Each structure stands twice: as structure tokens, then as C-alpha cells.
């Protein structure tokens, strides 16, 4: 049975204003955790155990300020959920200018590195910590995103595996989730009009549907639970079987 009691657990979460991150935030609050949540947008949710921070992680000065703020936290975080990210229009390399590539990398990769470096030392000092990085099927193979997005998600999986390998001896676990088609505001364009793009994606997926972001949040809850204590350095694919045929 998955441990649902996260009382006395402190969670740090990025990308909490919508989609997967919003569901993760509500799920951990419902399980009793204290949550510090970050997003570039205002987080429209209230809870006595929720601390909200509005910051643009793609802007170096704001990311640096957040890193310093985290270092001053009196108590270590038990869980870090790196969920913030942006898409890149599914364009090939020659169709993306350098500004687009820099923006995607600055949001999808650089904060994960900087924020891991901010929270990890205190996790190591307390002898335990769990990190979950939101990767993508685009981090496993080509065809799940554009060039910049695919590069960033491949690198994020590399970060996950190396953190898991280097710090397992210190009680640290790091895993990644590779979602496929998840129905969130990031994919709203696919459902525009008659939703033909969304229908086509569903047809290409063996499960014949898009996933709900709560399904990703539930998987996250398992990965950070005591029942997953031997799961480390793993990329869990949640794509309804899409990668089986692509």
C-alpha cells in the first residue's frame, strides 16, 4: 500500500500554478506535507501548509535569488519535485533560432541543476532526500518534441541518473517521470477547435486516450514514498504505450 502520510515532510515544487505541478501540489498537501511551491504565474490556491513563491526561473537573476532563499531555509527539504517546463513548438533545429533554444534550455534544464545544488547539501546532511524530475518521452527518443525540448529532456534524464548514482550512499534517491500525452494547459492548442490534433495523438497511443495530470501526481507520490525506497535512477514512462510503437 502506498504511504499517504506525508506529515512532517517538506516538499519543494516548481511549476505549481497549473497542469501536473498543480496536481502534485494539491496531492502532497492532501497527504499532509508542507509545500513550498514556485511558478512564474500566480498560484491560485490557498492552504495553511503552502508557501507560494512567484519567480521566473528562466531569468538568471530571479533563479539566483531563489537559490539564495532556499539556502537560508532553516529546515532541509525532504522532497524536490522539478516539474516546471516549456514546450518548443515541435520544430526541428534549423527552424529554431538561438533565442528559442536558449529559452527552452534556461527553463527546462538550468533551474533543475541550480535548484538541485541548492537543496541537496541539507538533504545529505540529514541522511535522506528524494528528487523527482519531470522528463518526457522526448527525453527517451526523437519524435516527442522539437530539437530544443528533446535536448533539454535528454539532459535532464542524465542529471537524474548521475545524482542517483553519486549520492545514493548518502540516502538520496533521484528518479524521473517521462510523460507522454498529458491533458494540461501546455497542450491546449491540440484541443483547439474540433481537437483534431488531440484526436490524432490519442489514435497513435495504444491506450487510445490522453492521461490526466492527476495520474502523474499519483505516480510521483509513489516514487517519493517508503514503498519506493529501492527505486533509484529510474525513468518511469507514463505514456499509454506510445513509445512502444514509435
Automatic annotation (TrEMBL):
SUPFAM superfamilies assigned to the protein according to its UniProt record, in alphabetical order: NAD(P)-binding Rossmann-fold domains
One BP term from GO: bile acid metabolic process
GO terms assigned for molecular function: oxidoreductase activity
Family according to the record: Belongs to the short-chain dehydrogenases/reductases (SDR) family.
Keywords, comma-separated and alphabetical: Oxidoreductase
One Pfam family linked to the record: adh_short_C2
Classification lineage: Bacteria, Bacillati, Bacillota, Bacilli, Lactobacillales
Gene3D superfamilies associated with the record: NAD(P)-binding Rossmann-like Domain
PANTHER family: DIHYDROANTICAPSIN 7-DEHYDROGENASE
NCBIfam families assigned to the protein according to its UniProt record, in alphabetical order: PRK06550.1
Keyword Chloroplast assigned: no
Name the UniProt record assigns to this protein: 3-ketoacyl-ACP reductase
Amino acid at each position: 500500500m502506498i504511504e499517504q502520510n506525508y506529515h512532517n515532510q517538506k516538499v519543494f515544487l516548481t511549476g505549481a500554478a497549473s497542469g501536473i505541478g498543480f496536481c502534485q501540489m494539491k496531492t502532497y498537501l492532501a497527504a499532509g506535507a508542507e509545500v513550498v511551491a514556485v511558478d512564474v504565474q500566480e498560484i491560485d490556491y490557498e492552504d495553511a501548509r503552502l508557501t507560494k513563491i512567484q519567480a521566473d526561473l528562466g531569468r538568471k537573476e530571479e533563479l539566483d535569488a531563489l537559490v539564495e532563499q532556499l539556502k537560508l531555509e532553516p529546515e532541509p527539504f525532504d522532497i524536490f519535485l522539478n516539474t516546471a517546463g516549456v514546450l518548443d513548438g515541435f520544430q526541428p533545429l534549423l527552424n529554431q533560432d538561438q533565442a528559442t533554444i536558449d529559452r527552452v534550455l534556461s527553463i527546462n534544464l538550468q533551474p533543475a541543476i541550480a535548484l538541485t545544488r541548492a537543496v541537496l547539501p541539507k538533504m545529505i546532511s540529514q541522511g535522506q532526500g528524494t528528487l523527482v524530475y519531470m522528463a518526457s518521452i522526448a527525453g527517451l527518443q526523437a519524435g516527442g518534441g522539437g530539437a530544443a525540448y528533446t535536448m533539454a529532456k535528454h539532459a535532464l534524464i542524465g542529471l537524474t541518473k548521475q545524482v542517483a548514482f553519486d549520492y545514493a550512499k548518502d540516502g538520496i534517491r533521484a528518479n524521473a517521470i517521462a510523460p507522454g500525452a498529458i491533458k494540461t494547459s501546455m497542450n491546449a492548442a491540440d484541443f483547439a477547435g474540433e481537437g483534431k490534433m488531440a484526436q490524432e495523438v490519442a489514435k497513435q497511443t495504444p491506450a487510445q486516450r490522453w492521461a490526466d495530470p492527476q495520474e502523474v501526481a499519483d505516480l510521483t507520490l509513489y516514487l517519493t514514498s517508503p514503498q519506493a525506497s529501492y527505486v533509484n535512477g529510474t525513468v518511469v514512462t507514463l505514456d499509454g504505450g506510445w513509445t512502444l510503437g514509435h
